[in-house]
Amino acid sequence: MIGVRGTAGLPSYGSGEPFASAACSAVDLESALNTISILDLALIGRGQTARESLNASVVLAQHAEALGYRRVWYAEHHNIRSIASSATSVLIAHVAAHTKQIRLGAGGIMLPNHAPLTIAEQFGTLAELHPDRIDLGLGRAPGGDQPTMRALRRYEESVESFPQDVLELQGYLAGESLIRGVDAIPGKGTKVPLYILGSSLFGAQLAAGLGLPFAFASHFAPQSLQEAVALYRRSFEPSEQLDRPHVIAGLNVIAADTAAEAQAQFQAVKRFRVSVLLGRGRTLSDQEADVLLESPAGERIMQMGTYAAVGTPVEVRKYVEDFVQLARADELITVHPSQTVADRLKSVQLLAETMELVPASPQVFD
Q1: DSSP string over 94-155
Q2: Is the pTM of this model over 0.70?
Q3: Interval 270-291 mean pLDDT
Q4: DSSP helix/strand/coil, 233
Q5: pLDDT in tens, 216-266
Q6: DSSP state of 219
Q7: Which of 214, 106, 119, 103 is nearest to 172 (CA)?
Q8: 45 within 8 A of 339, measured Cβ to Cβ
Q9: Of 85, 123, 180, 190, whose CA is between 20 and 30 Å from 44?
Q10: What is the signed CA dihedral for 265, 348, 143, 124, rounded to 10 degrees?
Q11: Could you give the domains of the chain?
Q12: 136 forms bridges with which residues in the sheet?
């Protein structure tokens, strides 16, 4: 299996607070292993159009629903030619209309890009149309580079108001607006559940202080996973939404029939990422990508995929079990980055089967 090193088959870091600390609350391992979700990056692969990518997202969500996954999330990214989820709430609405019961949401909305009232109205509309199915994960990253920030009319200082913006948004959704005379319609009283997304101690501290679930982006930012989760669990204060800590950890997964096939897919993923991030608008050949992968810049990009369960279903299950314990996660959100739709769907299926996920009973609709 690729990417396996350190004790218990997982990468290890020398810094950070160990999870054996008494400061960390207990985790129900069996529950965590049966509560698996998907972060769909709506990848636009080589030779693929945005429309084809969006159609594939519908198919993936339908498969996830049938296989027993808990939720599917979509992330707000801008000006990235390989990702089609920039209009996140629109994509969620489209997928929700083509599924029946799986939870759908943002993983996440980059709140500094938007007015809290606008997001409350968008997700309030989704919640009214699809009751009990909508999640709202919130991040403070730009979701793009500096020129993109300017195009979005976003300014660096807007990050500083992120905690206040979260509270304002929460007030709209709860029907307890912090701005006198202003309500989110739709949105008021829907109480769409909020999640704080992060890859640092800031997000952990904020989620703990607000009593919200914390989703750590360990699928691309692995360095502070242990320390951030420990801080979150230690500092958590119960809230109306949540009475105890809830950690969601991100993990890359490529499950295939053979280890060799999984490794080949993982290598293709590495080449694609380095081409997109370092290719300066060019589509690199495999040979050119391999050269960049061996450069310092390429190595830094590859560190983003430190946590990756790659291999046969048996190997992937073992990695998942070890990772959940390492991250002390209550829930796992998986990214299936294989380059073809067929390979992603196969990975989603094999993971569900090896983890023995149980689909929810079908709902009856009028």
Answers
A1: HHHHT-SS-EEEEEEEEGGGS-HHHHHHHHHHHHHHSTT-EEEEEE-S-SS-HHHHHHTT--
A2: yes
A3: 85
A4: helix
A5: 999 989 999 999 999 999 999 999 999 999 999 999 999 999 999 999 999
A6: T
A7: 119
A8: yes
A9: 123
A10: 170
A11: 27-354 (3.20.20.30)
A12: 106, 194
Q: Which two tokens stand for residue 311?
A: 């291999």
Cα–Cα dist 186/118, whole Å: 10
Output phi, psi for 121, to 5 deg: -70, -40
Both structure tokens of 120: 């409350």
Let me know: does 323 contact 305? Beta carbons within 8 Å. Answer: no
Alpha helix segments (H runs only) across 310-340: 313-327
pLDDT digits (tens, 9 = 90+) for 293-347: 889 988 888 888 899 999 999 999 999 999 999 999 999 999 999 999 999 999 9
Instruction: Give the three-class secondary structure for 232.
Output: helix
Q: Which amino acid is at 88?
A: T
Residues 34, 36: Cα–Cα separation, whole Å: 6
Length of the chain: 366
Which tokens in the block code for residue 36?
A: 């698996």
- Determine which helix (DSSP H) or strand (DSSP E) holds 196, and give its type and residue range: strand 194-198
Mean pLDDT within 19-41: 72
